[in-house]
Structure formats: structure tokens, C-alpha cells
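User: Good morning. I'm curious how uridine-5'-diphosphate-glucuronic acid would be positioned relative to this chain. Could you predict the structure with it bound?
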Amino acid sequence: MKISVVGGGYVGLVTAACFAELGHDVSIIDHGPAKVKSINAKKPPIYEEGLEELLKRHVGTRLRASTSYDFIPLSDLTFICVGTPPNPDGSADLSKVEAASRSIGSVLKKSGNYHVVVVKSTVPPGTTQKIVIPAVLHEAEKSEDEMGFAMNPEFLREGHAVEDFIHPDRIVIGSRNLRDAARVANAYQGLSAPFLRTGLTAAEMIKYTSNSFLATKISFSNEIGNICKKLGIDVYEVMKGVGMDRRIGPSFLDAGAGFGGSCFPKDVHALIKLAETIGEDPILLRSVIDVNEKQPGRIVQLLRARIGELKGKRIAILGLAFKDNTDDVRESRSIPVIEELLESGVVITAYDPIANPSMHKIFPTITYCSTAADALRGAEGCLVMTEWPEFEDLKEEFDLMANKVIIEGRRILSIKGGEGICW
Ligand code: UGA
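Assistant: Good morning! Here's the predicted structure, ligand included:
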């Protein structure tokens, strides 16, 4: 098939590269010339495991990027993969989705082919029907039955996005009719995963609900973890036992400093806002955010309890990314922790395997080290903020500390006798 993907960010780029891997001819359309140049030079503008290999394999043959929408009329399917960042009130900003829809519509004006526009961006229920379809049809000067539309949410974790695309748990396709759903399903041929066909709004809601439920599992584990901490119980042992119940499942039960990233906080806030606008009081979702916002303060509180007055002390922070395997620091739980430490007069030495440059943009004055050992040398305390697997191997590096107080967010270290925010 010929596929266009509008938006060359995490979702768009991974989706495009993986569709090329499945044998399709794929064009990425992005308004950033630097990003387009980098993709065409086979260099991913973001760090994502396995992505560079895919670009090397397919750019120049069946994958390309461009700033022009001219590829769209030549393709069968166009995926909208642009960002839906939060508005100041927490609702989703849909301006990029609307602009992309208009641009797609305008280049399809003269096209006689039956084209299907697929929304992959995370959008509030009703967006495809009320914003995308009218904008595309208006610009294309076409009627409802001359074009197809679908909503196909993504469930890609950053850092594992390629793997998640190739091995999905399910492929959700929301559409108005079977014909459009079948066209989208064709694009995924070759993957072994169940398809779920729904209406447009249900597909949109599935995405918000999935992210909100996963975020709820984490906040729930953190709340249990906070209780366990006071009772002297190991929450990781508890959640292992709890997760062995098939009705509950073992994933997303790891307590720590809370969830970050560009998705969970944004999507839970957007769902809260949506609920409020229709007169619902989303008590549980609000608590999910509440627990999450308080968690970073707890790790600083614990540090204070262990080493006393923080002013003038040197603290090592291991891990800056919002999770392992990414250089993304958006909503990273290290940010509020660093802010609070700086306010308390702490001198920070930080180390992340790949996210030092990203965090440098937010905190240019703290010291970034190229190894964990350098960050730990002479430190009077250490906070492990990201679950990087390489931290598992740290042992004698901790002997370099002036005072061996080590507190973890998620449990990752293998040294004995460690303490965590929740255990
Ligand atoms: C999340 C979802 O997992 C994807 O399915 C979804 O497609 C994506 O959002 C999106 O909406 O685009 P992502 O934000 O990349 O993916 O990261 P996750 O692996 O889900 O982790 C999110 C946060 O939760 C991280 O800060 C992580 O450290 C934290 N977490 C995760 C925990 O604190 N405990 C856990 O047990 C699991």
C-alpha cells in the first residue's frame, strides 16, 4: 500500500518506519526542514531503540520524508500523527490536528481516489467526527461518501515503540463502516494481533482510558507503597503477590517517584477536563494526579530525614529521563526533585546515560557528569530517579560517596540494604 504519515515525531516516525518494514511505500510529511533532512539522512532525530536500523534499511527505497503534502494524493491512506499538547487549562490543544486535516483536505481536492484519513494522534472523543471529518471534507470539497475516515490509537511506549508496533496486544480501528476499517487493517497485514473494530468515538476513548488506567495502577501502587513504607513492609514483595492474580496482572505495579512523560500526565488531565465539561466529577482521576504530584516531594523528605539539613550538601542524582531507554525528560519526576533540592541550597551532580543534554536545557547550572562514578564521588547522598538497567550493575561506585545514603525511586539497584521511597 501507499501510506502517508503527517507528523514526524515519536509516533509518526516510528509508525512510518514500521509500515515500511511491513513492506509499504511510506512518505512522512513534517513541517520541520531539519527533521526532514535528518530522517532522509537515515539519522533519527530522536532516540528510539531499533529506529535507526529501520531508517537505514528503508530510507531511499520505500521510506522518505518531506515538508510537502504532495505525496498524499498518491497514497491510499494518510495517518495523522501530530501532537495534541495540553492547553493551560489541561484540555487537549487540537489546533495541529485541525491544521493537518485542512492541509490533507486541500491536497485531495482534485484526487479521484477513495482516500482514507486515519487519526492516530491521541484526541478527545468526538474529535474525528466533529473536527477532522468536517475540516478534511470542506477543504477537499467532497461529500461524506467520497472519502473514508478512521481512528486508530497508538499504544507505543517510548523506548520500546518499534517493538510495541511490531508486537501489539491489539489493533483498535474505529470507523464509520467496514470498508474504511478493512483498508486500515490491510496496512497492518503481517502482524499477529487481534483487531478490535469500534465506532470512532469509542476508539478515541479507548486510548484515554488505557493511559488513565495504567496511570491509576501506578498511583495505586505508590499509595500502597507509601503505606507499606510506614509499616516497614516491602511494597515490591506485596505487588509481586498481588500481580500474580490474573485478574490484576503484574505490569505497571512498580512503586516509585511517580509517572512522567508526555502521555500519562497530559492524557489524565485531558480526561479530567473532558469529564468536568460534561458535568462529571472525576474523583478517582483527580486522585491519580494528586498522588503523582506528591510523590517526588516524598523522596526529598526522605533524604532530609536521612541526612538532615540539605543546605550546602552535595547530592548525586542518577537518572534524569522520565523512564529508561529514552532521552526524553518531559514531566520527568527528576524535575520537581531537582527544583526542590536547588531551592534548599543543594549542590547537584547529575548523571543520565543519555538524557544529560535534554535536562541541561531545563537546568543549565547543575553539574552533569559523564559517568555515575563521577556523579557519586564525594556526594553526601544519592537519589536514583530513573529505572535504567545499567544502574543494576553499580556497586563499588557507591564507595566513592562521602556518606553512603542511597534512596531509590523505582527499585533497580542490586546492592544490598538499599532503601526506596516506598520500601
Ligand atoms: C505510555 C503508554 O504506556 C503507551 O501505551 C502509550 O501509547 C503512550 O503512553 C502514549 O500515549 O503515547 P510512555 O509514556 O512512553 O507510554 O511510558 P510508560 O512506559 O508507559 O511509562 C510512563 C511512566 O510511568 C514512566 O515515568 C515510568 O517510569 C512510570 N511507571 C511505569 C511507573 O512508575 N511504574 C510502573 O510500574 C510503570
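The longest strand covers residues 2-6. The two ends are 52 Å apart (CA to CA).
Let me know if you'd like a different ligand tried.
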